[in-house]
Amino acid sequence: MITFEEINHHNHKILERINIISYMIKDRTICDSDVTCDLFFDLMDRIKNQMDVEERELYRDMLTHSDSSIKTTADNFLSGAAEIRRVYKHYMKRWCHNKNLRIKNHEEFVQETDDFLDLIQLRIIDKTEKFYPAVRSVYGEKMAA
């Protein structure tokens, strides 16, 4: 089972890369450079992997918990995760192909990327403030760092 230390580390790396990518994509001359693309796809992989791990390891016991507030919290966050997956897939389909960026309109790309990455940042904050405390109440010290 993943620990809170690992979750926090993964979230930190995602947030760190969001800040860097957000800065790099604004300059059209480096936006689709190899370095930017490598970092961009590393970020996208990390976002997807974090969603996969959380869904696989955190939700099951919470969704069947005897405390209805725990179940509700898990259900709400699972629904949010499904929406983020939908947005992620749409975003990747629109802007990416075979680990390459397809940027036809730089301004649109920057705006949609900023919007998507803002969503991810807000999701991490929301999980930290609301979801992870509920996870701790279910899993207790098994997940303690």
Descriptive notes:
The chain is an all-alpha fold and 145 residues long. Strand 1 (96-97) and strand 2 form a beta hairpin. Helix content is 80%, strand content 3%. The chain has one domain (34-143). It has helices at residues 4-24, 28-31, 34-57, 59-63, 68-95, 106-139, and strands at 96-97, 100-101. The protein is built from 6 helices and 2 strands; from the N terminus they run αααααββα. It has a two-stranded antiparallel sheet.
Topology readout:
Layout: H1 4-24, H2 28-31, H3 34-57, H4 59-63, H5 68-95, E1 96-97, E2 100-101, H6 106-139
Antiparallel strand pairs: 1-2
Give a short synopsis of this structure.
This protein is mostly helical and about 140 residues long.
Structural class: mainly alpha
Tell me the radius of gyration.
Answer: 17 Å
Largest sheet: 2 strands, antiparallel
Beta-strand percentage range: under 5%
Number of domains: 1
Mean pLDDT figure: 92
Helix and strand succession? HHHHHEEH
The shape, in one word, is: elongated
Enumerate the strands of the largest sheet in spatial order, edge to edge or round the barrel: 1-2
Helical content class: over 70%
Work out the oligomeric state of the chains in this entry.
Answer: single chain
Please count the helical segments. Answer: 6
Could you tell me how far the N terminus lies from the C terminus, measured between alpha carbons in angstroms?
Answer: 11 Å
User: Which residues sit in consecutive blocks of at least 5 with pLDDT less than 50?
Assistant: none
